[in-house]
Structures are given as structure tokens and as C-alpha cells.
Amino acid sequence: MHLSLDLPDAPATQKLGIKLGQILAPGSVVLLNGDLGTGKTTLIQGLGKGLGIEDLIDSPTFTLINEYADGRVPLYHFDLYRLSPAQVPSLNPELYWEAVEVAPGIVAIEWAEKLPYSPPEVLILDLSYQGEQRRVELWAKGPLSMAALQALSEEDQSFQVGLSC
Ligand SMILES: Nc1ncnc2c1ncn2[C@@H]1O[C@H](COP(=O)(O)OP(=O)(O)OP(=O)(O)O)[C@@H](O)[C@H]1O
Ligand SMILES: [Mg+2]
């Protein structure tokens, strides 16, 4: 299942994140791909709002992983920008989506193209510049992500426009 949306401004990117934060189930993994400044952190800030997280969500570029526990579901925010694909396994990201020693939550990963393997259940967001504008393509793999994409398209007519199966 695939959804394609125009994101005319930063609030549109945030709104998509908020909707996903309201919809996504624990155990979901959101992979964010896209060039510098395409809106990955902005979308995750919306995701945090949708989960009811009050803390300020910032880019975890220097810490690599930030954890937020004060929402309806924990959020684990990764930023792989500074790592090579060979360095990523040392972070043990699978411990987060397999919820080993952490509570089941939503895992959101910036620069996910550096992940050398794919989690079994993912919602992939490919963010890009389209001239002056920005755009996102959403791809679901696995039942949780497919249900989320379906719910997203049913909830809001503006999201329905770009849906194809
Ligand atoms: N759809 C949009 N249209 C225009 N501006 C946007 C949009 N989404 C986000 N922005 C703005 O673009 C800038 C960069 O956004 P953001 O930091 O979220 O990008 P990023 O992909 O996380 O960047 P990086 O690659 O450095 O991690 C911010 O000023 C943000 O407000
Ligand atoms: Mg960022």
C-alpha cells in the first residue's frame, strides 16, 4: 500500500506526524528517508504531539537516540546521520522494536537508508523536494503499518487523494 502527499509548508508536515502519532500502534517502526532539511525532524515532532508527548523533541544528532516516555506510548527517536551503515548495528536498534528491556513503543529513525537491515514491520516515509515544495511517499510493510496507512486515508479526505493500493 502506498500514499503520496504534497506537504506545502512545515505545519502540513507536522499535521501528518500528529495523525500518525494518534494512529500508530506500539511496535511500529517509522523509517524516514530524505535529503537534508526535507522535514524528518518536523514530522517526528508532530508524531510526538500526536502521542501526547510534552517534552521538546529535538534532533538527536549528537545523542543518536532520544527516548520520550511521557506520551500514551513511548517514542524512540534515532538519527543515523553521523553513522555509516557498518556502525549502525552497534546501536542495537532491534532491541527497541523488539522491546527487549524497553517498553513497546514507536521507533522513528531519521536517515533510515543507513539501516543495513529492515525491521519486519515498517512504515517508510520518503521525503523529497519537488521544486519549491516538499512531498512525501508513504509505504507500508506489515499489518500494523498497513492498518495505520488505511486509517490515515480514512480519517482525512486530504490524505485520501494520494492513496493507491
Ligand atoms: N513541508 C515543508 N515545507 C516547507 N518547510 C518545511 C516543511 N517541513 C519542514 N520544513 C522546514 O524545513 C526545515 C528543516 O526541517 P527539519 O529539521 O525537520 O528537516 P530534517 O529532514 O530533519 O533535516 P536534517 O536532514 O538536517 O535532519 C525547518 O525549518 C522546517 O520548519
Ligand atoms: Mg533532522
Automatic annotation (TrEMBL):
Entry-linked InterPro entries: P-loop_NTPase, T6A_TsaE
This protein's major location comes to: cytoplasm
Q: Which organism is it from?
A: Roseofilum halophilum BLCC-M91
Q: Which residues form the signal peptide?
A: none
Q: Does the keyword Nucleotide-binding apply?
A: yes
Q: Which family does it belong to?
A: Belongs to the TsaE family.
Q: Where in the cell is it found?
A: Cytoplasm
Q: Which UniProt keywords apply?
A: ATP-binding, Cytoplasm, Magnesium, Metal-binding, Nucleotide-binding, tRNA processing
The superkingdom of the source organism is: Bacteria
Put simply, this protein is called tRNA threonylcarbamoyladenosine biosynthesis protein TsaE
Q: Which SUPFAM superfamilies match?
A: P-loop containing nucleoside triphosphate hydrolases
PANTHER family (UniProt xref): TRNA THREONYLCARBAMOYLADENOSINE BIOSYNTHESIS PROTEIN TSAE
